[in-house]
Amino acid sequence: MTATPPTQDAGALPSTALVIGCGLIGTSAALALTARGVRVHLRDAVPGVAEVAASVGAGTVEPAVAPDLVVVAVPPAAVAETALAALEEFPHAVVTDVASVKRPVTEAVTGTPGAARFVGGHPMAGTERSGPTAGSALLFEGRPWAVVPLPESAPEAVALVTSVVQALEAVPTPFTPDQHDEAVALVSHVPHLVSVLTAGLLASAPREHIDLAGPGLRDVTRIAGSATGMWLQILDSNAAAVTALLQSLRGDLDRVLDALAAGGDVLTGRLSDVLDAGRAGTQRIPGKHGEVRTESASVFVPVEDRPGVLSQLMTDIGESGVNIEDFRIDHEYGRPVGLAQVEVAAERADHLTSSLTARGWSAYR
After folding, report:
1. Predicted TM-score of the model (pTM)
2. Is the distance from CB of 127 to CB of 134 less than 8 angstroms?
């Protein structure tokens, strides 16, 4: 007999929750739920890890008796087994997970007695850091959170998980399992592999070549430093979707190689199409607040590497009446100076440049 999920009012949060897995995501979810008045119990395969999470305020390591919600935040290879065990151990709890691939867990749970109480999930949030001490109650704010129910998932279970996502100030986004896995292959898994392959070229490169590295290389390789073990599990779980995209990418690489070999007008024609397609693709990436991207421009400002300089720069930008769309800073090679790149609406770039120049900054476009 299938257990009935607890009845929840619209927008209600669970009274108690169990978070299984106290890494970055699990601890961050626990911290955020605790901050909102939910009594959170913590469990990890390594008890000491749960104790560390408890020590930073994520919850208690006391055993959970009858939680309303179970959040499975274990490594990808253990998600299906852990979710099934939680559904059996807590026959009245709604169970969700945070795995980046949904097919394995949904296939495992579909058709089981607890399927009505399971709703898959995946927050698109994280940092290069890991472990419970990296957790933050603010990690999910403004980030998409895929909500991936089964056909059997009860409406009450979907409503509870959606309420939790909204309470954590993330943006619930509904997907089917197949749609989700295809989407993350495109926006996460293949970009990670491309970053890794590019970074791998650096391993045997002469040092003097790497000394020329600038922000472009750092942008491309930033995510390549993530944990190998986790990514092996993710890629194995989503091999079909990743393979399809890599085959398409391989075709594009072959066309680029052919164009480079041909040179001249052939190169110009074929590579122009490739470069233009890339530019068009970047325009489809959502802008801030999920809005359609607007045309922007960068204003560059050299800054000294000392306390208070960035604060003053931000103050002067604010007084210029220009809103910042994005901001980054790169340190110059061999000098105690950084270069701030301030991205603003294109029509405001000249005004910001002249305004900062009038305030003594060496701003330029």
Report:
1. 0.79
2. yes
